[in-house]
Structures are given as C-alpha cells and as structure tokens.
Amino acid sequence: MKTAETCSLKEAATRLGADERTVRRWVRQGLLPARRLPGGQLRLPVMAVTALHDTHLRPETPRLNQRDDHTCFG
Q: Predicted confidence band at 10 (pLDDT cuts at 50, 70, 90)?
C-alpha cells in the first residue's frame, strides 16, 4: 500500500508562499492536516497544501468601487 506524498513544513511554506510560522499556525487552526514524526518533524500531505493554495490563497482581483468613483479614473 502506497502512502500519500508528504512534505516538510519548510517545503509547504515555500509552496504556499508563506512564512513557516504562518503555516504552523494554519496546522494548529486545523486548516492543514499534519502528522508529527517520532523525531518531532511535521509532515504535511502535498495534496492538502496544494488544495489550500488553490482554494484560499489565490490573489483576489481588485474591484473598482463603482458607487464612489466620482468619474475619476486616475
């Protein structure tokens, strides 16, 4: 039986474009599943990291506030 591919905390932070402390906080908050190896290292499933990136961390497109633009485009 093949186990799911995992990555380290540092690799996950790089993939997500975030600080390692931020990724650790997301693990504590339950946004990312992780398991701790006997040596204490966190391992995160690559699929979960990719899913978080695709669903929550996409940059939003800026929206023009139509109501208050006062015909100014500068």
A: very high
- Average pLDDT of the segment spanning 24-43: 90
Alpha carbon of 32 to those of 9, 14, 48, 56, 71: distances in Å? 11, 15, 6, 12, 44
Q: What is the pLDDT of residue 51?
A: 86
Question: CB of 51 within 8 A of CB of 58?
Answer: no
Query: Alpha-carbon torsion 22, 15, 9, 6, what sign?
Result: positive
* CA–CA separation, 45 and 34 (whole Å): 7
Beta-bridge partners for 42 = 36
| CB atoms closer than 10 angstroms to residue 25 | 13
Q: How much is the pTM?
A: 0.66
